[in-house]
Specification:
Chain B: Pfam families: Fer2, Fer2_2. Chain B: Keywords: 2Fe-2S, Iron, Iron-sulfur, Metal-binding, Oxidoreductase. Chain B: It comes from Microbispora amethystogenes. Chain B: InterPro entries: 2Fe-2S-bd (IPR002888), 2Fe-2S-bd_dom_sf (IPR036884), 2Fe-2S_ferredoxin-like_sf (IPR036010), 2Fe-2S_ferredoxin-type (IPR001041), 2Fe2S_fd_BS (IPR006058), Beta-grasp_dom_sf (IPR012675), Diverse_Oxidoreductases (IPR051452). The complex is a heterotrimer. Chain A is α+β, with helices and mostly antiparallel strands. Chain A has a domain of 113 residues: CO dehydrogenase flavoprotein, C-terminal domain (Enolase-like, domain 1, 2-Layer Sandwich). Helix content of chain A is 32%, strand content 22%. Chain A is built from 10 helices and 14 strands. In chain A, a hairpin with a 4-residue loop joins strand 12 and strand 13. The longest helix of chain A has 25 residues. Chain B is an alpha+beta fold. Chain B has 2 domains: 75 residues, Roll (Ubiquitin-like (UB roll)); 69 residues, Orthogonal Bundle (DNA polymerase, domain 1). Helix content of chain B is 30%, strand content 12%. Chain B is built from 5 helices and 5 strands; from the N terminus they run ββαβββαααα. Chain B has a 5-stranded mixed beta sheet with strand order 2-1-5-3-4, with helices on both faces. In chain B, helix 2 packs across helix 5. About 9% of the residues of chain B have low confidence. In chain C, the strands form 7 sheets. A 7-stranded mixed beta sheet of chain C has the order 3-5-1-12-9-10-11, with helices on both faces. In chain C, a hairpin with a 6-residue loop joins strand 26 and strand 27. In chain C, helix 8 packs parallel to helix 9. The relative contact order of chain C is 0.13. Classes of the chains: A alpha+beta, B alpha+beta, C alpha+beta.
Chain lengths: 302, 174, 794
Amino acid sequence: MDFLRPRTWAEALDLKAARPEATPIQGGTDVMVEINLDKGRPAALLDLTPIPELREWSREGDVIRLGAGVTYSRLIGELEARLPGLAQASRTVGSPQIRNRGTVAGNLGAASPAGDSHPPLLACDAVVEAESVRGARLIPIGEFYTGVKRNALAPDELIRAVRVPVARGPQYFSKIGTRNAMVIAVCSFSIALHAAERRVGTGVGSAAPTPRRAVAAEEFAAARLDWRGRSPLDPDVAGRFGELVAGAAAPIDDVRGRAAYRTHALAVLARRALGWAWADFRAGTGADSSAGSGGGDDRGSQ
Amino acid sequence: MRVNLTVNGRATAADDVWEGESLLYVLRERLGLPGAKNACEQGECGSCTVYLDGTPVCACLVAAGQAEGREVVTVEGLSRGDAPLPGAGPAHGDVSGEGLHEVQRAFLDAGAVQCGFCTPGLVVQAHALLAEADGVPSDADIREALAGNLCRCTGYEKILDAVRLAATRLGPPP
Amino acid sequence: MTTRLFGEPVQRREDPRLITGRGRYLDDLGAGALAAAFVRSPHAHARILDVDVSDALDVDGLVAIYTWEDLPGALAEPLPLLIPHPALTHGRTAYPLAREIVRHVGEPVVMVVARDRYLAEDACALIRVGYEVLKPVVGLEEAAGGAHLVHDDVPGNIGAHLVQEVPGPGGETAREAVDAAPHRLEFRLDVERSACTPLEGKGVYARWDADDASLRVYSSTQTSTSVRMAIAAKLGLPLPKVEVVAPDVGGGFGVKIVHPWPEEILVPWAARLLNRELKWTEDRREHFVSSSHERGQVQHVRVGFDDDGRLLGLEVEILHDHGAYTPYGIIVPIITSTQLLGPYKVGAYRVEFSSVYTNTVQVTPYRGAGRPQGVFCMERTMDKIAAYLGRDRTEVRAANFVQPDEFPYDQGLTFQDGRPLIYDSGDYPEALRMLKELIGWDSFPEEKARAAAEGRRIGIGVGCYVEGTGVGPYEGGHVQITSDGRVHVSTGLTSQGQGHETVFAQIAATELGVPIERVSVVTGDTRRFGYAVGTFASRAAVMSGNAIALACRKVREKALRIAAEALEADPRDLEITDGMVHVAGAPSASIPLATVAVLSNPLRYAFDEEAKRATQFAGPASDDRPPVAEGEEPGLEGRDYYSPVRSTFAAGMHAAIVETDPDTAEIRILRYAVVHDCGRLINPMIVEGQIHGGVAQGVGGALYEKMVYDEHGQLLNASFMDFLMPYATEIPRIETAHLETPSPLNPLGIKGAGEAGVIPVSAVLAAAIEDAEGIPIDRMPISPSDLHTLRRSR
């Protein structure tokens, strides 16, 4: 095995082009588990932690450009107001020690259906910024997940950053696990109200081979919510929304839970999340509903 | 490969490191610091928690090469090294431990240790919690902060007592 | 007075080294030793066709590869069946390395020795074992069906079958009593598998001294003396040439009482053969698939009772899953069968168990050792009776209690030590009263109604148990006071975190009247104490604690005798305080224990000032007496043993309040209360810690932990990612109250406390969930997914 230690992003891209079989390693929270448990021995490890720009995030217009090396802990600490859904999901990732190392980009690289970042990224219309020596490209999140633990990256590509729109309305993430801490989701759900566009974003985790949106539920809710009058949420609408979200899932029975439970729980999570988000919307609270003029830094690095 | 790093304030180097090796293996097997423990090798138990550049991490999930040029503090580095504790082996046990950090002293006073295998990781993680905390953290905050450290013996109650005790003794941050 | 330490929450003397990273566990020893690794069966049931090691031979740093064919003499025989029993008609144990057949995933097939663990595992990966896969037997009822066999020569997969029967007061059988009872219930209960899962797995490190032809072995074990005897026997070494040391041990909970593990004899064998230090440390997956599991029972219950809920007859049939082998005999189902009775008088009782083989990891005791299953059975029975009669659940229990004036109370059964099941002391009505007060039992209905008004579901549950602790045959203690005034205590049993160094020092300091700082304690080191049984069955404090107290009393008596002579006083007038022997009421007439120790050992050579005082010319000695009087021994030391007639019975009662989410079926423990009676407390802080830890393991077993096998016998959740043990976020504060009814059976009046906490938790939480949900909970553990399934099927 080789340990490749690029100093710059350009060097990293060169190395990945020369050694497409090299496994990028950031927080190590997936890669090292595989090695430690002898589940696979990569030909080479490409350590991305020395590259300073990966540890930076910046605000570019209405979008946060989240460097591939920004840890969950920093995301929670520095970006909670602007990316509330993703920050909530980040809080549920592993333990403090894991959050101190793990990154959203790493979650994308592993592309596990149970990854906690995926539902809010889907709900928020995130875009993955991939790059290789051939150039950079933007991959809409909906096109990123291609199968169980597979993604749309080409062998020579690395994730440079994830672009996540600043919240324009309330966002929520919730998940169910058998245990409270350190738990892999039995199912998870994220919602984002895109108030200005009168649109609802969703993301469903752990309930299908890939993370996915619940498109029918989004369209139903967008049409039935009283955006102008902000009247209270009709319980029937919330209930139907939950059913439609559950209908978008294709769960399985496994050691973590039964498919029937996953479907049921997903409907509950979705119904509740819509309720919380709508209540925030009516109250004019929730994330950054002032459309981006809120305080806070415009960049961060470590 | 060779890995250069600073451990507990001392610059050091490990040789013949395998590229897929973890920082935990380097500390235990190559640098003679067995304080951090190996219980799961997948970041679930927290027994190998150490500081990496001031941030608590699971040493089993840090590739050895990622520690190049960085600063590591282990449980061995939290107590004052110049005051050797009585009882170097399992056969002894004078409880007069000078040089203990407040967190360690609180674990002792609260009876927060049983088999002790998870203790080094918990001591480091509790140390990190209190370094950040403003006053005595809430019960929920302590539980959340320790939610990556498995203990099979204590039921956690006396560990929580120890964290509160240490926080009280440390007082508000300057 | 600082020496009266019995009963005080003394700080643990183990901790300074453990909180600073200076503890020494197995894997912290033997830097530079060769490493062993094992090729283990990937199949639950298969015939080994061939083993091809040719590719592995190329691994740089490889030292040796061994299969069963390489094992000599007794090493090639099956591992010992440690606890034979007449009912275990078909006991079976594994070979140290599989011979022809593998019977569970994880069974060791090949041992590899290499320069380090990485290289050993590299070599393992290159060894190709050819298998003919056989039909695996998975699941209790499938195994009992007997369509396929785990062992060809064990018909029906039944390893053991035992019936115990106690007639009712009128001589009626349990069947007759149930049939004649005014009310009857019949039901089935299921308890799934779990496991001890200590944070530190097993491990062995062996050093062969070729010049001395002796072996020193370190093992992460609960019984170093017995490991020593097993190694000597298996390797054909004289016992004095083998020493076994249990270093700091990172938890045991039962799994490390089993011995010798294959690795415990293979590693010393190879170390001697290679004349090199050799170490093996178990990794987490190995621990899941190649150590032991427990729990795992199906119970069929028939009970008859009167209008007050008093039991008239109880019949229980138990199907017990023993996994692939029975090295520890049938201790677990015997304990279930007997301890099921709890604090109750059950009228006529009949219990029958069949212990069946399956192609899964073997089953041996895990903290509680069969009691959690038994208590689940009895306490679910009590709740069902209460529900049937519409009575308060605590009333029904109280109606059946053994009363305080009925001790000693003979349950009429044979316990796990082969002795009659006779409860020595207890006060169950008082314990229940305390518990009800602690949890607020009587006001709970209003609390529940208030919660219901808010759309919340909460429920309360209670569970009682009696635990036989401190089983024999014996433990010993050795106490020596040296001429520096230090007290050296040793006992043969081992420690895995129970604080033995502290509680035994408390006992010694109290008995001898010395400051605890002068006392040091060594456990589990055969170099210091060779006769012992081990640490299990909540026995260490009772057994070694009393043995050490008795040894101290011998030493004290001798010290007083010598001091009396020096002080020209009557020994009966002497006391020891703070390490000084003095005349009661006259502190100035005193002599330090250190000096007594000097005087106890007449010397020829004066190597220091203290020694000079003991030489033959130092003081007045009578010419007509030998320097060491007849019947005396030099030195101020003593050794004694404690061997009880039978176990002493601790008891406890737990209650919990839980909340279940009406939508997601998530389960949350709101409160957990414990009343615990382990006789006189030596160190309340340590006892509380034992209870908390036990409850936490119980919560794990009730809500999170299970072993998920598929139909091929693959364990699907063999990692900490999917075997869900509780973190600090899962365990509530545990409210604890102590009741102390001393045991009349031992000098210190103590009872065991180690296992207690875990025993009733599944029963208590099942009861609380049942109360919240109104759905019978007959199977544990229960996850939100399981509860959802129950809700849908009602």
